[in-house]
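Q: For a teaching handout, I want to show students what a protein-ligand complex looks like in token form. Below are the inputs, and the small molecule is pyrazine-2-carboxylic acid. Please produce the holo structure.
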Amino acid sequence: MRTLSGAAILCVATRVWPVSTPTGKIKADATSVLIIVDVQRCFMAGGTLAVPHGEDVVPVINKIAAAFENVVMTQDWHPAGHVSFASSHPGRKPFETIKLGYGKQVLWPDHCVQGTPDAALDKDLHIPQTELIVRKGFHRDVDSYSAFEEADRKTPTGLQGYLKERGIERVFVSGLATDFCVAWTALDARKAAFETYVIEDACRGIDLNGSVAAAWSEMEKRGVKRIQSTDIELGSAQI
Ligand code: VGL
Ligand code: ZN
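A: Here is the structure, written as tokens, with pyrazine-2-carboxylic acid included.
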């Protein structure tokens, strides 16, 4: 009985803000990681799959990154002729959906092709403490929106193992695009039992037929916390 009630109290205690400060803000600690999803030239103005206002996330992410000792980035990294490209399916156009062996796939313009300037990380990101860059979508026949698991829902990227081995418990997600790679990454982080936050103003969406609203409702249903960059304590590292 005592053990049971003790466990219940512990459980309640870990369900409030991870480490909140006297100002009520969230403080990133050594068990927190900031994941910066696909902040690449291809998703910005002039890129091959420009997300509306995609470039606006860069100053927000640069600012909050100062509060994190652990930062991981992802990079969409497709071979030429990738299965997610409309150009790989004669007669199909970008933004149509097709059925593949692993399920539904949105077809995209050719984007983030390995080694091209379009696939480079945005040059205005200044986050020197970044400890890992996870490339994804490099298998020609499988897409990967999530930083954790490819679209076949079988092939891991290795990120979960990395974060668990490093003792990470909380994941803060930022970047592009809210309704695809950010949402899938956040949902998989929950599935892997990380406390998961998405920093809304550090993300921008593509929005195909209401996909941004649908992504938020799914994330909230699964226990992902929706926060703003101003909810994070920047402390003395503030710029
Ligand atoms: C993404 C579509 C295709 C993303 C990547 O980063 O959200 N979206 N590839
Ligand atoms: Zn892609």
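A: Two things your students might notice: The longest helix spans residues 2-15. Residues 2-79+111-237 form a domain with the Rossmann fold fold (CATH 3.40.50.850).
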